[in-house]
């Protein structure tokens, strides 16, 4: 009995020792396992860094920039669209409208930039895709989409005279904006008018929509005038931007100024101050006097209709006091309806003798405007848009400077006072 007990005691001591040994092993294993975990994380970080480095080596170093930025709106139709690249060269650029219509453009000779070949359309969404390579031949890609300024958020200026035209010495540069301009100084600074004669040219605002330019005295005959519209992106009013970028040139013809004297009922046509022809006329009657002042021919019509009702001359039945469908050799002097024109319906005896018109200046003519030998035909053939017709001794008031192209009726100081810059 005692012997069995001794045996069990030895067994327990053996188990305890074994447990201690096993515990030691387990502790050592646990410590070893902790060291192993740290080594494994370090190895993972090294592997990731190596992977990142490898990926970087495989990525192109070319950096493509597309303007306007992706998602832009109210973008310029002229200068905004462009693609540039650094640390590489452009290999392909495509631009299309949202519907897929391609837009032509060209990569520069150094392959560092691209621009569309012509101005973009307003209120249109464009998509741009660009591709470039770096020095290692690795390819980079970039894409963007933007929308150009809408008509509602833009303004344009309709100008006269036309590019490449030849006009008389009195022709101002007249710009009519399709939206009211509140930032007049900014818009005027975006417009320059210069003459090869060196004359000082100043702008004058007649209202929020009209800006005219002229020198102190009539343009120098034979000179060239240049109009530059640099209005792209210029804010004309809150939320309204310019879109025009244009250069216009026109030629000034010979210096012709004609003087209509309602008292003597004659018109002297002068060139460079010398009278080249005197023509009998019939101007406004005492009831319908002709405006006085310096007037500029703004339109020419070989034949045109003149209806009294359109300018306020109506009978009690509401019909015009006159309605002539084929007025020959008509040239407009005012927006309100003052013309210098041929007259075939009046007796030949009135010209040079009696003022009979409703405010226009009449010259003897024939029906159909087919006779080149009449005074009206001669004057029509020898006149340019922009020629000056000075009317005097009518007894009426001086024409308003904004009634037609007639800003010459303002003094130079008054004209300059209307400038915003």
Automatic annotation (TrEMBL):
Alphabetical UniProt keywords: Acyltransferase, Cell shape, Cell wall biogenesis/degradation, Peptidoglycan synthesis, Signal, Transferase
Xref: Gene3D superfamilies: 2.60.40.3710, 2.60.40.3780, L,D-transpeptidase catalytic domain-like
Domain of life: Bacteria
Disordered: region residues: 99-118
Pathway: Cell wall biogenesis; peptidoglycan biosynthesis
Domain L,D-TPase catalytic: 256-392
Active-site residues, record numbering mapped to chain: 341, 360
Entry annotated with the keyword Transferase: yes
Pfam family for this entry, one: Big_10
Keyword Signal: yes
Signal sequence segment: 1-30
UniProt protein name: Ig-like domain-containing protein
Native organism: Streptomyces mirabilis
């Amino acid at each position: 009995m005692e012997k069995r007990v001794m045996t069990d005691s030895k067994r327990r001591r053996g188990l305890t020792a074994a447990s201690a040994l096993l515990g030691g092993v387990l502790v050592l294993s646990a410590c070893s396992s902790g060291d192993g975990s740290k080594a494994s994380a370090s190895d993972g970080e090294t592997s990731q860094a190596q992977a990142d480095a490898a990926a970087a080596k495989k990525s192109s170093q070319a950096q493509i920039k597309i303007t306007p930025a992706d998602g832009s709106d109210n973008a310029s139709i002229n200068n905004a669209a462009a693609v540039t690249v650094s640390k590489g060269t452009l290999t392909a650029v495509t631009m299309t409208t949202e519907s897929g219509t391609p837009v032509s453009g060209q990569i520069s000779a150094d392959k560092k930039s691209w621009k569309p070949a012509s101005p973009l359309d307003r209120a249109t969404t464009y998509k741009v895709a660009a591709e470039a390579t770096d020095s290692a031949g690795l390819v980079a890609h970039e894409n963007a989409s933007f929308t150009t300024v809408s008509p509602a958020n833009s303004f344009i200026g309709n100008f006269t005279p036309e590019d490449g035209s030849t006009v008389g010495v009195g022709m101002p540069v007249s710009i009519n904006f399709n939206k009211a301009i509140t930032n007049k100084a900014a818009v005027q600074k975006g417009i320059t008018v210069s003459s090869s004669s060196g004359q000082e040219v100043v702008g004058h605002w007649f209202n929020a929509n009209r800006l005219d330019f002229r020198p102190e005295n009539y343009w120098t005959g034979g000179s060239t005038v240049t109009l530059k519209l640099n209005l792209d992106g210029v804010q004309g009013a809150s939320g309204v931007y310019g879109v025009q970028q244009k250069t216009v040139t026109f030629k000034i013809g010979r210096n012709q100024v004609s003087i209509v004297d309602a008292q003597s009922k004659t018109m002297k046509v002068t060139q460079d101050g010398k009278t080249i022809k005197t023509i009998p006329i019939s101007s406004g009657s005492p009831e319908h006097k002709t405006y006085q002042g310096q007037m500029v021919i703004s339109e020419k019509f070989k034949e045109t209709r003149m209806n009294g009702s359109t300018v306020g001359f109506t009978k009690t039945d509401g019909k015009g006091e006159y309605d002539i469908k084929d007025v020959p050799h008509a040239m407009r002097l005012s927006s309100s309806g003052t013309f210098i024109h041929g007259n075939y319906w009046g007796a030949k005896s009135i010209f040079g003798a009696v003022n009979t018109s409703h405010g226009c200046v009449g010259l003897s003519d024939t029906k159909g405007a087919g006779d080149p030998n009449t005074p009206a035909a001669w004057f029509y053939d020898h006149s340019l848009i922009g020629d000056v017709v000075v009317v005097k001794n009518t007894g009426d008031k001086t024409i308003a400077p904004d009634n037609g192209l007639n800003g010459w009726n303002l003094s130079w100081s008054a004209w300059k006072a209307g400038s915003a810059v």
